[in-house]
Design a protein that fits this description.
- There is one protein chain.
- The chain is globular.
- It has one domain: P-loop containing nucleotide triphosphate hydrolases (Rossmann fold), CATH 3.40.50.
- The chain is 58% helix and 12% strand.
- The protein is an alpha/beta fold.
- The protein binds BIS(adenosine)-5'-pentaphosphate.
Length: 192
């Protein structure tokens, strides 16, 4: 089984690369951002709480996310080729929880980190904001999301580096070029 944790700042291309990996390798895709937006769309009380956090660019609490991930992993079919975890983990606590869950289910994962310059992140998200309808795709919230990423998400790279399964990719290039780098890593690591 091939599990990939796709990490990177807002706008680094996690969703875009997930789509390509999913199509090329036949993996499942779990985007925690999509799961949370689906809950908001249902208009539930939980959805309202989530909306209040996401729309200003803050993270949803770790314990709320843990339930989503545990249910997902527990429900995976035995023949599953693997999952792309897009946007999870986003804190060191989430990284520790995910590692424990994967171990419990006799799975492991590699982390691919999409590295993109800040000006390019902002440019991509402002461009997407013209059509996305996402409440968090505006300049103030984008800046806050990037600050939250540096503060809470970046440290997880050290966690995976220590465990020897961390790979950085230069995400400043075009979509196909980035995907070539991603494929090289996946092809090499899936042979182990
Ligand atoms: P989430 O939906 O995961 O948003 P994000 O991390 O801010 O990432 P984005 O979707 O904005 O960008 P992306 O990296 O996927 O890039 P994309 O491929 O779309 O999370 C939203 C919120 O949910 C979080 O802020 C948080 O509040 C909450 N949340 C989610 N997970 C959580 C968790 N685990 N814990 C707590 N809270 C959580 O590309 C962006 C744009 O760039 C697109 O228009 C695309 O076409 C373009 N593009 C992509 N790649 C390229 C390229 N190589 N060249 C040119 N353009 C490109």
């Amino acid at each position: 089984m091939l599990n990939i944790i796709l990490c990177g700042a807002p706008g680094s291309g996690k969703g875009t690369q997930s789509q390509l990996i999913m199509e090329h390798y036949g993996l499942k895709h779990l985007s925690t951002g999509d799961v949370l937006r689906a809950e908001i769309a249902k208009g539930t009380e939980l959805g309202k709480q989530i909306d209040a956090l996401i729309s200003v660019g803050n993270l949803v609490p770790d314990d709320m996310m843990y339930g989503v991930i545990e249910n997902y992993i527990a429900s995976l079919p035995k023949h599953c080729k693997g999952t792309i975890f897009d946007g999870y983990p986003r804190t060191v606590a989430q990284a520790v929880s995910l590692s424990a869950l994967l171990k419990k289910y006799h799975m492991d994962a590699i982390m691919i980190d999409l590295m993109v310059d800040e000006q390019l992140l902002i440019q991509r998200l402002l461009e997407r904001g013209k059509v996305s309808g996402r409440a968090d795709d505006n300049l103030n919230t984008i800046r806050h999301r990037i600050a939250v990423y540096h503060d809470q998400t970046e440290p997880i790279a050290h966690y995976f580096l220590r465990h020897g399964n961390y790979f950085a990719v230069n995400g400043n290039h075009g979509v196909e070029d980035v995907f070539s780098q991603v494929k090289r890593i996946i092809d090499r690591e899936s042979k182990h």
